[in-house]
Amino acid sequence: MRAELASRGTDDLQRAVGIAETARCLVILERDLAQAEALLLEARALTERSGEPAWAVFDGVGLLRLHAGALGEAKEAFEEAWAIAKKRGNRLEEFMALEHLVMASIHTKDPDQACEYAKELADIGEKLREGSERPLGRAMLALCRYQQGDVEHRATLEGAIQELRDVDAKQRLAFVLTQAAAVESERGELESATALAAEAEAIGRILQQPSELALARAVLLRIAREQGDATQVEQLAEELRQISGYANHVGVIVERELAAAAAMSKAG
To answer: What's the alpha-carbon Rg for the chain, to the nearest Å?
Structure first.
């Protein structure tokens, strides 16, 4: 009987991981989020029956809460995922949980916390020699330090961005490009900000991911507004209005930039 119960628990855990991985993919691609939520509920029930937690369930819940704009809840879920990965000694899972913690911290405008997670991320990335983890770890750490005002890390960030291009990590590259463009825009480096945001916008169109596309266009809209280009502001605002399905925290940025663009048009 004990052997049968152990086998059933293992089977439940394996099923839960498979179901949760499917849900994670749906959230990452921003497709059928209601189905993703249902799958995660099923996966969580299976892990509870098995008596073992699953990294993929917590990371999937975190991604879903991040998309919903519940950033605090998202970070809690990612922390749980990170703890499970560390306990299992799975560096790739640790890396992905930390990647999402850095993203969530950036979205909550907590650069100090983002840098703490990014340091851990970069350390693990150096041990994962294949794929895009090493350049992403370097890029995220340089980005966080650059956001903190350390301009010496701009060259490091540029180098890491090129490494991400070289390994064709489009989704990860788009995030770093957009965040770097936002920093450059805030510092008045409008030419480089435009180039970075335009590249991110092009990737967003290729991947058909509304959040990255909307963020990049919002940055481009801000830059056009700062340049006083009324025609470009009107065009970009219209293009931004055509996007739907992006994350709630992205929606806050979109609404803010559209309101600023409307105020400029009215004043002009």
So the answer is: 20
Q: Specify whether the CB–CB gap between 29 and 209 falls below 8 A.
A: yes
The domain spans of the chain are 7-86
pLDDT tens, residue by residue, 143-191: 999 999 888 889 999 999 999 999 999 999 999 999 999 999 999 999 9
Question: Model-level pTM?
Answer: 0.93
Query: What phi, psi does 212 have (nearest 5°)?
Result: -65, -40
Looking up tokens 């911290």, which residue turns up? Answer: 105
As a whole number of angstroms, the distance between CA 51 and CA 70 comes to 27
pLDDT tens readout for residues 231-258: 999 999 999 999 999 999 999 999 999 9
Report the C-alpha gap between 188 and 88 in whole angstroms: 45
CA distances from 124 to 42, 99, 119, 137, 152 (A): 31, 11, 9, 8, 23
Residues 191-213: what's their mean pLDDT? 96
Pick the more confident residue, 51 or 63: 63
**Chain segment 217-226, per-residue pLDDT in tens:** 999 999 999 9
Question: What proportion of the chain, given as a percentage, has pLDDT over 70?
Answer: 96
CA distance 170 to 186: 24
Q: Are 82 and 45 spatial neighbours (Cβ–Cβ below 8 Å)?
A: no
Determine the number of helices (DSSP H) and then strands (DSSP E) in the chain: 13, 0
**To which H or E segment does residue 239 belong?**
helix 230-241
What lies within 8 Å, CB to CB, of 16 at 6+ separation is 42, 43, 44, 46, 47, 50, 54, 56, 57
Are 69 and 248 contacting, i.e. CB atoms less than 8 angstroms apart?
A: yes
